[in-house]
Amino acid sequence: MQTFIGWFKTIIFYEILIGMKATMSHLLHYKPITVQYPHEKRVLPDNYRGMLALLRYDDGTEKCVGCDLCEAACPSRVIRVVSAEVPGEPTKRYAKEYYMDMTRCLFCGMCVDACPVDALGMTREFEWSVYDKRQLHLNKDQLLAIGDRSFPVREKRLELQHPNVAFFNVAFGHVPQKPN
Amino acid sequence: MTELSLRLAVSVAQIAVVMGIVMLTVMILTLAERKVLGWMQDRMGPMEVGPYGILQPIADGLKLFFKEDIVPAGANKFMFSLAPILAMVPALIGFAVVPFGPSHKFEIFGISVEPFVISDINIGILYILAFTSIGAYGIILGGWASNSKYSLLGGLRSAAQVISYELNVGLAIVGVLILAGSLSLVKITEAQSGGFWHWYVFALPAPQIFAFVVYVISAVAETNRVPFDLPEAESELVAGFFTEYSGMRFAFFFIAEYANMVLVSCVAASMFLGGWNAPYPGTILEHIGLAQFSWVENIAWFTVKAYVFLFLFFWLRATLPRLRYDQLMKFGWKVMLPIALGNIVVTSIAAYVFPKG
User: Fold this and answer.
1) Which residues of A touch B39 (CB under 8 A)?
2) Which of A16, A64, B132, B148 has a CA-to-CA distance to B70 between 20 and 30 Å?
3) Does A56 lie in the same domain as A24?
4) Does residue B54 lie in a domain region?
5) Same domain, A14 and A57
6) Alpha-carbon radius of gyration of chain B
7) pLDDT: which is higher, A17 or B355
């Protein structure tokens, strides 16, 4: 009897019919999962890691202190920082030049984690296809511009910190702490 | 105006109309395949060109027309150019004997014209089988002349496959030929009029249901469609025999494949499913007193049958994975061929025991 049923199933292509039923049910209950990308975009998650940007304080000064820690943290050597002293303030440094080669970036976010002054941020931009890949070699002004358009709300500069004490933005006990 | 030139003009007009319809069907099919396949896989298919992507075939055609026509180095240029034509012409030429509608005759300027079949020759089905065999030459020559190992492998696979399965196609329809007693598709179709129980799939004394299944499977294999698409297996052979083709020559192979699909669908509809006959006796338009317009209904039924077959092609493609080469040959020679032969024996006995009329 079992053999007979087996033979019968072979003759009527039972397995193939099961498969065809499955495809037909998908055709009848048509619910595409396609997102028509340029016309509709998916909602990005909160921790989305997009294009990198340099940030500013609310008074328009750059946050970056040129410490090179991002360059050290970067696994694919995207970042190149040329650090220099702020003229007239020997204890304070800044990034004189700051380059990112975004053709190599793998968007791991380790530079953002490494930054001691939160000068780097990851925006939610991802549409960065260009015709010339040299356009992905970004300098400091371009990175600041990305930060300006992606982070309109800027962090307040620590007012009570004397510029000479603000070495790497580490607050000392005798000066008031940064609120929150 | 002489009678000859008049006949020529009528024939050319008929050929132009049929070619136009076939080309239109091919265009619809390229879109329908992508759409149906997409829907079955929870995708949308082409959506960009025109509303819901309905203008996609035109965009594809324009793209192929303006693409560079590359002949690979070391290719046999004559054979390379000849192959696409040799593949496409037999696929289109078979439509000459397919009856699309009832065989009314009407007189025009003193000559009688059959509007729905280009030429009713008495060996119609043999003519179709002969020309589809020539189509295999196009594939083999295309594979060989490209001077590429993938093309050659695809061509050789195709040669073996097409020859094996054409045998099954030929044997599967022998049962129908025995019952109908004719090789003319017009006569075969007319013999199936008067309701779906007269169609040769179901008709007593010898229902050709097994022959029908063999025919459908062999037709899928003969047109190199999934799951028998070994000649153009994308994941194994790049694109098989037309790897090296581009531009309009590629388009010719593409049109040949789809025209072959349409042709085998039309032949299956004519041979097994009653062709242009409705599944009930007569036509509805005839019953309500519009007998002169009943050809509309008949053509609609023929179209429905052909398109159901074409949908089956897409459905199989969405469902089944590709067969292995030894499975393909084993299935063709050890399963399909004995069934087809057995069907001939049973049909012959039945036709002898219960002779017609």
Assistant:
1) 26-27, 30, 32
2) B132
3) no
4) no
5) no
6) 21
7) A17
Condensed to tens digits (0 to 9), the pLDDT of residues B246-271 reads 888 888 888 888 998 899 999 998 88
| Residue A175 included in any domain | no
Same domain, A23 and A102: no
CA distance A135 to A122: 19
Residues of chain B with C-beta less than 8 angstroms from the C-beta of A7: none
Contact A16 B47 (CB under 8 A): no
Best B44, B312, B313 member to test A by mutation, with max A CBs in 10 Å, is: B44
- What does the pLDDT look like over B49-103, one tens digit per residue? 888 888 988 998 898 888 888 888 888 888 888 888 888 888 888 888 888 888 7
CA angle B31, B32, B34 (to 5 degrees): 70
| Domain count for chain A | 2
- DSSP letters, B81-120, are HHHHHHHHHHHHHGGGG---S----EEETTEEE-TT-S--
Q: Are residues A57 and A25 in the same domain?
A: no
pTM of the model: 0.81
pLDDT value, residue B1: 65
- Residue ranges making up the domain that contains B276: 63-98+122-353
Name the token pair of A146.
Answer: 């990305």
Phi, psi of A81 (to 5 degrees): -115, 130
Domain tally for chain B?
A: 1
Distance in Å, alpha carbon of A120 to nearest chain B alpha carbon: 39
Asked if the structure places residue A64 within a domain, the reply is yes
Q: Residue A141 is part of a domain; what is its CATH number?
A: 3.30.70.3270
CB contact under 8 A, B40 and A27: yes
Give me the pLDDT at residue A98, please. 92
Domain that holds residue A24: 1-31
In angstroms, the CA B270 to CA B268 distance is: 5
**Which of A19, A26, A36 has its CB closest to that of B42?**
A26
